[in-house]
Structures are given as structure tokens and as C-alpha cells.
Amino acid sequence: MKTCLITGASGFIGNYMVNNLQKKYRTIAVSNKNKCHAVSDVENVKIDLATPAIEKIRGYCPDIIIHCAGMTDLRECEKERKKAYKINYLSVEKLVQMAEEMSSYFIFISTDQVFDGKRGYYKEDDVSNPVNFYGRTKLDAEGIIKEHNVRYLICRTSSVYGLPYGNRDNFVKFLIEHLERGDRVSLYSDLYSSPTYVKELCGIIEMLIEKKKRGVFHAVGGQRLSRYELGILICQALGFQTSLIEMSAYISEGFDRPLDSSLRRSEMPSGIEDCGIHYYLNDMVRL
């Protein structure tokens, strides 16, 4: 059985990735603080990737490395740029160097934030031009991966949604907490992306690994939606009153966001289909 090492295993995407792949691989779940919530036994390992402890990864000789860890809060990245650069770029530089030396297949979770958002529906080879520091660190990380002689897969994704494991915060949890209290929630109606169901994303990555794909892929849902439109659909799926969701216009928060960071979904191998957001929302509610 091949060994698959997943960083950021206690995070939103990483936790789903562990549970999606643990039956097929010997799975090493790497996290900095909390253990992942696994449906069966996995090897939980505590490693701070921003320190020399990252070298411990060599001891596992992974066939596959899936790098889900990162500093993803845009506001925090702007405020703490040195920390963001260390986590989002320097740790990737070290990981991909080790992947090259160990002949590991390196999968990197990237973002729609590498684009400036001036037109949307970006293809894989469109010119990248991030407008915030988070996007810059991810684009720089993509660049250093491409410079190494390593089998790599860069999966850009967008507005990943779903129910979180444990007590983790995310957009769906935020909505549930406010809607259960009857609070009104204001969401931007003029910021667009390609919302992606977390289980769909993990399934896409699993299939791309099986097909031994390389290069850059846009692993996203097939619809372009505003944050407000997504909020309405989630509200309906969860059975709350949509009147609690209010539309608002984007106002700068001291840093820029791309107005339309929607991605054109990459051509996928056979066996991967976009079932549509209503299907995925129904699946989410059944969990």
C-alpha cells in the first residue's frame, strides 16, 4: 500500500481529504495543533511546517504528498505578511524540495485568488495577477513548484463549502449559527467565484491522482455565483427563511479582493462529473 502524507489534516479540506483517501493509502495526517477527525485509525503526526521539524516528513518516505496546510485568512495574511510568507511560500519551497529528493508525487491546493478578478471564468493558462498578499504567496508557491524536477499537480479551487468536522469555523457554520438565532446576514452580491463542494473537490483530486495527472487543474464547481447567491442556496437547503439573507455591495476591507475570481472548470478524466450545486447541497444536508 502506498503512503500518502496530507498536511493541514485538521483543517477543513485536509480533514475531508484524509477521510476520503485513508482506505486506499497508508495515510499520514500531519497537523500543527489539533488531530484530524478521522472515521478510522490514521497516523496523526504533529509537525509545525514553518520550523525545522518539517524534516520529520522524510522519515515517512511518502509516495504522495498532498499539501492542504496554509494561512488562508485574507485579512490575517495582509496584517501578518512575514508569517503568511513563511507558511504559504517557504514551507512549500521546503516540501517540494523534499518531494523531489524522495521522488514523491506532490499535490498543491491553490486558489482562485491568484487572479485579479477583472473578467472571471479564468482558464489554467490565463495570466495571473493577484490583488492581495494571500494570492501573491500562493502564486509564488506555484512558481517554485514548477521550478523543481518533481511530479506535481496544482489544484486551484474556489469558495470551498460544506459542513466542517469538529468545531472548525467556515462559511456554512457561520450561516447556521446566525440563522438559528434568527440573525440577518449581509452577503456581497457583487463578488463572484466558483463555489466548490468539499467532497467534490476531494473526489476530483483522488481521481487525478489515480490518473497520474500533472500540471495545473481548476478543480471547481461548474457554476459562477455571488456570495449572496450561494448564501441563499445554502439557506434554502438547510430550511431557513431566505429573508434573513440580505444583499450588500463590496466595500474594501483595507485590502483588495478580486471582484470575479470564477474559474473555468478543467476538462476532467472520465468518471468525474459535475452533479450541480443543488445535488451537492442535498448531500451536505444529509451528513
Structural class: alpha/beta
**First-to-last CA distance:** 29 Å
List low-confidence stretches: none
Strand order of the largest sheet: 3-2-1-4-5-6-11
The value of Rg in angstroms is 18 Å
Secondary structure tally, helices: 8
**What's the total number of strands?**
13
CATH superfamily membership of the largest domain, which one? Answer: NAD(P)-binding Rossmann-like Domain
Proportion of strand residues: 15-25%
Order of helices and strands: EHEEEHHEHEEHEEEHEEHEH
Whole-number average pLDDT? 94
Top keywords for this entry?
287 residues; Rossmann fold; UDP-galactose 4-epimerase, domain 1; seven-stranded parallel β-sheet
Short description:
The chain has 287 residues and is of the alpha/beta class.
Notes on the protein architecture:
The protein contains 8 helices and 13 strands. It is of the alpha/beta class. The strands form 4 sheets. A 7-stranded parallel β-sheet has the order 3-2-1-4-5-6-11, sandwiched between helices. Strands 7-10 form a two-stranded parallel ribbon. The chain has a two-stranded parallel sheet with strand order 8-13. It folds into 2 domains: 3-160 and 195-218, 3-Layer(aba) Sandwich (Rossmann fold); 161-193 and 224-286, UDP-galactose 4-epimerase, domain 1 (Alpha-Beta Complex). The mean pLDDT is 94. 42% of the residues are buried. The chain starts with a strand and ends with a helix.
Topology, element by element:
Layout: E1 3-7, H1 12-21, E2 26-31, E3 43-46, E4 64-67, H2 74-79, H3 81-102, E5 105-111, H4 133-147, E6 152-157, E7 160-161, H5 171-180, E8 185-188, E9 192-193, E10 196-197, H6 198-210, E11 215-218, E12 225-226, H7 227-238, E13 245-248, H8 277-286
Helix pairs in contact: 1-6, 3-4, 5-7, 7-8
